[in-house]
């Protein structure tokens, strides 16, 4: 028991040193509460054309199917809230994409954490995950006591709101689990009321196929004309539900240089966005997650907003 606790504290101290906001632990096992919710969400087609969401249903709900002998899920949060945001009255991109692609930044930190565990605890097997495998990040982070899942389906903390990435180490090391925290959304419906496309169809339920992030990033075909005029100038992703959340008044700027935006991007006017060339796109978004939509996708989105 003492060892499980000591190891956990060592890992949390190292996670903090690596720049993570917080670190929590939960026992690896089947996510009983999430199973029927995920099943219903898929059955109702709320994943739209994101067919990958239908794959690996069992693995999404049970990390022991992803990592042999998994005993613990170590969840980590990394802040990305920027010091400066884009100028007013321009086409907007989601704050998480301002800097370098978070997958690479977090993966290298997770590798360091794994190395630390091996050097200080011994031969421990596990895998690192950053939003790129069938892992229900928010469910595990909530189980690990890092926050609660808000009505907009993002993880929330009273200290810092919701502008952070979630990552996991699923490992065969047995650690003392943390306790979940309580929900502090109360009667607030700010996110539901503000969603430009009414994608939050009920408290804690987001219809992914109606979300601006889905239309501007995941959807590969033309954006349907019935949502014209509803995007509030979002060209890549959307932060509206987070921007209006009262808990995000506590957001503090990150201290991760890799997440600093290209200076040119913050100054871009609507005209700059409309006239962006492939060379400028490559330079400004060289290491950014915006590359996911490709130059052609960004042009499509801007054309849709302009028309």
TrEMBL record:
Protein name, entry field: Epoxyqueuosine reductase
Family label: Belongs to the QueG family.
Pathway: tRNA modification; tRNA-queuosine biosynthesis
UniProt cross-references to InterPro entries, sorted A to Z: 4Fe4S_Fe-S-bd (IPR017896), 4Fe4S_Fe_S_CS (IPR017900), QueG (IPR004453), QueG_DUF1730 (IPR013542)
Gene name tied to this protein: queG
Enzyme active site: 131 (proton donor)
GO cellular component, one term: cytoplasm
Keyword Iron-sulfur: yes
Organism, scientific name: Zeaxanthinibacter enoshimensis
